[in-house]
Amino acid sequence: MELVLIESPWKAISASEQVRNSQYARMCLTDCISRGEAPFASHLLYTQVLNEEIAEQRMTGIEIGLLWGKLANKTVVYQDFGITSGMSFGIKRALTEGRPVEYRNIPLTIDATRESLITLAREISEYFGVTYRALTSITRLGEVCIARQVYFKVAKQLYPNTSLNSIGRVVNRDHSTVIHGLRNIDLKIHINDAYENYCISRHLDFDKLNHIKCQ
After folding, report:
1. How far is Cα 201 from Cα 98, in angstroms, rounded to an integer?
2. What is the DSSP string of 81-112?
3. Which residue ranges form the domains of the chain, and what is each CATH number?
4. pLDDT tens readout for residues 166-199
5. Spatial CB neighbours of 105, under 8 Å, sequence gap ≥ 6
6. What is d(CA 38, CA 88) in angstroms, rounded to the nearest whole number?
7. pLDDT tens sequence across 29-52
């Protein structure tokens, strides 16, 4: 069984992108395991105790991961969502140390199972500090609204061939509500840099979001 070091996107500019990157990294782990490999993804581990928003702590996490990477037989780069600066750093280190680099893609064209969508919705609920039950309810509170819209966006990115009806049913919404939610979250991310910086924080103050209306 080969030891492999995973490089995949992590640092994000919005809450939806951060959740997508987290879920995608888990998919990369699963892909490696299915190939009979023993993978290591330091960005899933050290970000639990280090603050990505502090440059020194971010570089510490990267450096620790690359030290473990010296034990790996190769570095595998998952590039479905591009190659970030952190990934480029890891690739250069692998080449410098003489470690083979393999580029991979995960088929994102398959339909998501209901179970995988529920898992994603629960992860996003936890990220935003709300319950999955609230996500599926009729509540229009700001924090729940945003979590629900982020779920729509990440689900569509990770499973582009999955119907909007299937995505919506997991949180008791129809396809028109999913479309509305996708438009809303894209608009917020596009026009409001403060919102991006605010949502990416793990310490969200939802009182500031309660005025937001949603489906």
Report:
1. 37
2. T---HHHHHHHHHHHHTT--EEEE-----SPP
3. 3-104 (3.40.50.10400), 114-209 (1.10.1750.10)
4. 999 999 999 899 998 888 877 765 545 444 554 5
5. 78, 79, 80
6. 22
7. 999 999 999 999 999 989 888 887
